């Protein structure tokens, strides 16, 4: 492992990481199994949506010209010559003065051009009731009213989804509606997480002096799920350099990404840093960001990309947000790997990070100033003087305020960029 001589900016560190990761191979999966995956190719719609002209209302399919003179004082009576239900394949013909009962979603007969909702007609039992043999229309209707035209939503052959799209519920429904059964997606990285620290108590063990409950694996596994990595293998290292180095070698050969937390400081027992010293393509960097200034990342000899994150829980979370999340999305071939900062009004004063990008966990909420436009406000979720260990307050944060290195302190009422990170 080598160490950077100078302090990098967060952007430089991110660029360094992104240069060393690329999209994983492609898999073919059923649309119904593809939720949360990333599309690997553009998909053109094999069908037009709607597939054919169909009714937007329960009512009568007519020729608008036949009822052009209808009015409350000169109603017109139409002869009912058929009925089409949703799913019905019939195409009844209409002569002048004919109507066909039609239900929402049913194909509009070729000979009709307009649908009159049943509420606007008089039937067997008066206004708005259904008619058996003839129906009375008391108003003219515009040609094409209540007809959903073939292809008005999506035309056959047009691009329905683009390589790099996250396949969320709406996108998958669009593909399913267009008759797409299978899609090509990027493989999801296989990720192993190793937590280190002899002070960490496993679940259900009693707490002795000096011990704390282990929480970083819960944090990291959750953050991984939030960027598409569902299956995560978690290891608890015993804090011996030799066994950790052995574990990292093993995991490095069978995973795409290995993440560790803790043990990268300059301390005498910072075993991750020591274990990674033998890895030539891993780099220890000091980054001008607060928290999360210590970053070790790079390619393990076995092939996996390693992120050795600081042990402090909020530092680990911020490292994940700044460097790991974009890399994992890039590996999945996602077209957009960055979050979009939005402006929010600071609810309190706080000290900036003097020469470092401050990434402060905040609670972001919508506010409506009297008479003004609605906007967002943000309040520190943790004490800005001691962020990196404040795992409790961090739990309430739904975003991070990004205060640039040269900006100085923040004063209540200032506008600051925030990124929203809640799932
Ligand atoms: N002399 C210096 N000391 C420290 C420096 C420095 O530059 N010079 N940097 C500080 C910063 S910044 C950080 S961040 C930490 C990095 O330390 P490590 O990555 O070695 O982390 P640990 O010492 O192992 O742990 C730090 C802290 O986090 C708690 N922790 C660790 N793992 C977990 C876990 N899985 N679940 C919950 N909590 C965890 C651990 O108990 C410590 O309190 O170094 C500073 N020191
Ligand atoms: O810089 Mo450490 O990595 O914040 O808490």
Instruction: Please state the average pLDDT score.
Output: 96
The quaternary structure here is single chain
Computed CA radius of gyration, to the nearest angstrom: 31 Å
Q: How is the main sheet built?
A: 7 strands, mixed
Portion in helices: 10-25%
Which stretches of 5+ consecutive residues score pLDDT under 50?
none
Instruction: Provide the list of bound ligands, each named once.
Output: ligand LQZAQKY5, molybdate ion
How many helical stretches? 7
Number of strands: 28
Structure description:
The chain has 423 residues and is α/β, with parallel strands linked by helices. It has 4 domains: 2-23 and 189-331, Molybdenum Cofactor Biosythetic Enzyme, Chain A (3-Layer(aba) Sandwich); 28-49 and 152-186, Alpha-Beta Complex (Molybdopterin biosynthesis moea protein, domain 2), CATH 3.90.105; 54-148, Molybdopterin biosynthesis moea protein, domain 3 (Molybdopterin biosynthesis moeA protein, domain 3, Beta Complex), CATH 2.170.190.11; 342-420, Beta Barrel (Beta-clip). It is 17% helix and 29% strand. It has helices at 10-19, 169-177, 216-226, 241-254, 271-276, 313-331, 391-394; strands spanning 2-3, 26-30, 43-44, 54-55, 59-62, 76-84, 98-102, 114-117, 121-123, 126-127, 134-137, 147-148, 159-161, 182-186, 191-195, 200-201, 212-213, 232-236, 257-261, 282-286, 289-290, 294-299, 305-309, 342-346, 357-368, 374-380, 399-403, 415-420. The strands form 7 sheets. The chain has a 7-stranded mixed beta sheet with strand order 1-20-22-23-19-15-18, with helices on both faces. Strand 25 (357-368) and strand 26 form a beta hairpin. Bound molecules: ligand LQZAQKY5 and molybdate ion (MOO). It catalyses: adenylyl-molybdopterin + molybdate = Mo-molybdopterin + AMP + H(+). Pathway: Cofactor biosynthesis; molybdopterin biosynthesis.
């Amino acid at each position: 492992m080598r160490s950077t001589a100078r302090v990098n900016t967060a952007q430089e560190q991110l660029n360094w990481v992104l240069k060393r990761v690329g999209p994983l191979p492609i898999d073919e999966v059923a649309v119904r199994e593809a939720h949360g995956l990333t599309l690997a190719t553009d998909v053109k719609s094999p069908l037009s949506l709607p597939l054919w002209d169909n009714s937007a209302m329960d009512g009568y399919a007519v020729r608008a010209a036949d009822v052009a003179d209808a009015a409350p004082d000169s109603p017109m009576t139409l002869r009912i010559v058929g009925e089409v239900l949703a799913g019905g394949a019939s195409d009844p013909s209409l002569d002048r003065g004919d109507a066909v009962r039609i239900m929402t979603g049913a194909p509009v007969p070729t000979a009709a051009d307009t649908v009159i909702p049943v509420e606007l007609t008089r039937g067997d039992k008066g206004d708005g009731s259904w008619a058996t043999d003839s129906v009375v229309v008391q108003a003219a209707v515009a040609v094409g009213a209540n007809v959903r035209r073939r292809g008005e939503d999506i035309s056959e052959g047009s691009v329905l989804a683009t390589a790099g799209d996250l396949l969320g519920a709406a996108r998958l429904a669009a593909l399913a509606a267009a008759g797409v059964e299978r899609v090509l997606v990027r493989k999801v990285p296989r990720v192993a997480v190793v937590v280190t620290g002899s002070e960490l108590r496993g679940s259900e063990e009693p707490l002795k002096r000096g011990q704390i409950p282990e929480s970083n694996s819960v944090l990291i596994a959750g953050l991984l799920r939030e960027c598409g990595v569902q299956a995560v293998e978690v290891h608890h290292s015993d804090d011996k350099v030799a066994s950790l180095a052995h574990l990292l070698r093993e995991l490095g050969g069978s995973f795409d990404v290995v993440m560790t937390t803790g043990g990268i400081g300059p301390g005498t027992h910072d075993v991750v840093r020591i274990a990674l010293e033998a890895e030539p393509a891993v780099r220890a960097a000091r980054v001008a960001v607060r928290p999360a200034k210590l970053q070790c990342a790079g390619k393990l000899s076995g092939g996996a990309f390693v992120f050795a994150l600081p042990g402090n829980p909020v530092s680990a979370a911020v490292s994940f947000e700044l460097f790991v999340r974009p890399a994992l999305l890039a590996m999945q071939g996602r077209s957009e790997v960055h979050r979009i900062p939005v402006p929010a009004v600071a609810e309190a004063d706080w000290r900036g990070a003097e020469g470092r990008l401050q990434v402060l966990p905040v609670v972001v909420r919508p506010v409506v100033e009297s008479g003004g436009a609605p906007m967002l406000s943000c309040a520190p979720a943790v004490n800005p003087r001691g962020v990196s260990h404040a795992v409790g307050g961090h739990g309430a944060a739904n975003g991070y305020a990004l205060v640039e290195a040269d900006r100085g302190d923040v004063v209540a009422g200032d506008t600051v960029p925030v990124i929203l990170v809640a799932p």
